[in-house]
Amino acid sequence: MDSIEGYLLDTNIASASWDYGAPSHRSVRNRLEELGDAIVYVSAVSIAEVEYGLQIAPSIDVQRQSTVRRAMDSFKVLDIDKHTANTYAEIRANLFRTHSPRSRRGRLTRKYIEDLVDRTTGKELGIQENDLWIVSVAVQYNLILVTNDRMHRVTEAAVYADRTECWR
Fold it and tell me: 7-166: which CATH architecture?
């Protein structure tokens, strides 16, 4: 897959840029302005996470929700596709080999396909699944990942720490 020059915002950065009520809204907007003409993307996963948050947060007024949704619509969205799935599988396999309980690792040598089902949870690997998908999109397109999360296990497994910026 060809690289796209630009940045991919993790959900926490994207939502702060979209929500004028977020404590870090102004600082994130300032950082985005400093990027100049660089192309800034978000993942479809981030759109889903923010939309979910809007739908379960009745305390956010309708006007603010509408403003967030309009801001979301102004960003270029990268979808999950088969190339993302391959990248995800590689990164998750690296996480499994490094961080899964040792008792789970040996089971994958069995000869039946049913035995290859991985029941290791994201909690056991010390990750959040959505972070893994977002990092997979960044890797797929060779974008600089912008986050304020500690997702060191995922970026290490992806060999992507040097392409990740932490905006705190």
Answer: 3-Layer(aba) Sandwich (3.40)
